[in-house]
Amino acid sequence: MWGSRRDRDRSSVICIACGESLPRDDAREYDKEGDRWSRRDKEFEYLCKECYRELSHQPRGDLEELLTDVEASAGGDTQEAYVAAYQTEVLKRYGGPEADTEDADGHRD
Ligand SMILES: [Zn+2]
């Protein structure tokens, strides 16, 4: 349960792949853009060593490019805006489960 402060809470992170909690020192930072040196306002996600190792030899296709484009169009404001922009972009590129997904989102060209 979050909110109860224990000694190690501050340095404990969650692996985004398997959900395991581990000490930050043992975790690998994961940046969606593959650019760990541009820290700006972003929060990094973390992977445990096992998942990081698996990740490194899995092809990700054009995901990085997609995510970078999404951030550009979302303006990097909020996580909600980012996710919404991501979903829009994915639908645009790959189509959705429903053929006629259409939202009037103030989208301009
Ligand atoms: Zn993991």
Bound molecules: zinc ion
CA radius of gyration: 17 Å
Number of strands: 4
Describe the largest sheet.
2 strands, antiparallel
Instruction: Give the fraction of residues assigned to helices.
Output: 25-40%
Q: Beta-strand level of the residues, as a percent range? A: 5-15%
- In what order do the strands lie side by side in the largest sheet? 1-2
Low-confidence stretches: none
Helices and strands, in N-to-C order? EEEEHHH
InterPro entries: DUF7562
Organism: Halobaculum marinum
Pfam families: DUF7562
Protein name: Small CPxCG-related zinc finger protein
What does this structure look like?
The structure is a single chain. The protein is an alpha+beta fold and 109 residues long. It folds into two domains: 9-56, no CATH class; 63-94. Helix content is 33%, strand content 11%. It is built from three helices and four strands, in the order E-E-E-E-H-H-H. The strands form two sheets. A two-stranded antiparallel sheet has the order 1-2. Strands 3-4 form a two-stranded antiparallel ribbon. Strand 1 and strand 2 (21-23) form a beta hairpin. Helix 2 packs across helix 3. The chain is globular. Zinc ion (ZN) binds at residues 15, 17-18, 20, 47-48, 50-51.
